[in-house]
Design a protein that fits this description.
alpha/beta; Alpha-Beta Plaits; 2 domains; globular; binds ligand L263DTV3
């Protein structure tokens, strides 16, 4: 870290006890892979998070995954003080305890409708997350064209089922409305009386969290986990999960370098 680091990072390093480090999971901590069930955190991720978790006020994962899935795929159970806000803030995992709401009544309709819409489509996969359901086209012969063709019928199905459509990297997700990563992060910052914040993400669902960082009135830094799939403006752009974890380690180095004695 150098003297010309963004002000938000300077605030985190100067007062780590007041800092909240918010992180997305897929594409930010875990490299993007064709099969969602095969995603796993970058090998250096658990150690980096455990180290940072012992230095800052809080590390919070804010993800579209079920919270328990992120804990499992991220090998995160041992990270000190970690909170995982799953399903865009609908559920919360902390200290091994999961708090989750009842299943939305529209989910059964969405599940059946998506099966019908995608029957016979080559390479299209449905990911059933119990409290949300997603359709993935990454493994289709023409992933983007397949996603584009599904968009309108999926939007209509979501309206019928009373669900929101969450678009992402070659995925359309139907999920309960009323929350997003910005609301989830903002509520967490208030809960912890945060004095600074960093949020790192890689996908469209992370833009609400970037907006929350900019609007919260705290020294803050947005970090985009870059790839060839999407370009997004952020204070810092790093090279995928490896770059994010390198940054987290650099922050930890800088905090340890500031500590007296
Ligand atoms: O909020 P996130 O943690 O980033 O979760 C967003 C979605 O991520 C997953 O899908 C993405 O990653 C997959 C595995 O690398 C990839 O195959 C897929 O194309 C990506 O869209 C996850 O499967 C979804 O449920 C999440 O909503």
């Amino acid at each position: 870290m150098t003297a010309d680091m963004p002000d938000g990072l300077k605030a985190i390093v100067a007062d780590p006890a007041g800092a909240v480090i918010g992180l997305d999971f897929d594409g930010t901590l875990s490299p993007i892979v064709p099969d969602p069930a095969a995603a796993r955190i970058h090998p250096d991720g658990p150690a980096a998070l455990a180290r940072l978790g012992g230095l800052v006020g809080a590390v919070v994962i804010v993800t579209g995954r079920p919270a328990a899935t992120a804990v499992e795929y991220g090998s995160l159970a041992g990270v000190p003080g970690l909170v995982v806000l799953g399903h865009y803030g609908l559920e919360r995992w902390e200290g091994g305890t999961l708090t989750t709401p009842p299943v939305h009544p529209g989910l059964a309709r969405a599940r059946a409708g998506l099966s019908a819409l995608t029957a016979g489509l080559d390479g299209v996969r449905i990911e059933d997350k119990e409290r949300a359901v997603a359709v993935h086209t990454r493994q289709a012969p023409d992933p983007q064209a397949t996603l584009d063709a599904l968009r309108e019928p999926v939007i209509a199905l979501a309206a019928e089922a009373g669900l929101a459509v969450e678009p992402g990297k070659l995925v359309l997700e139907l999920r309960p409305p009323g929350t997003d990563k910005g609301k989830a992060l903002d509520a967490f910052l208030r809960e912890r009386a945060a004095r600074s914040v960093l949020f790192a993400g890689d996908d469209l669902g992370d833009l609400a969290a970037f907006a929350a960082v900019r609007a919260c009135g705290l020294p803050g830094v947005t970090v985009f986990s870059g790839s060839s799939e999407l370009e997004v403006e952020a204070d810092l752009v790093v090279d995928g999960p490896g770059g994010v974890i390198g940054l987290l380690n650099a922050i930890a180095d800088a905090i340890e370098g500031e500590e007296p004695g």
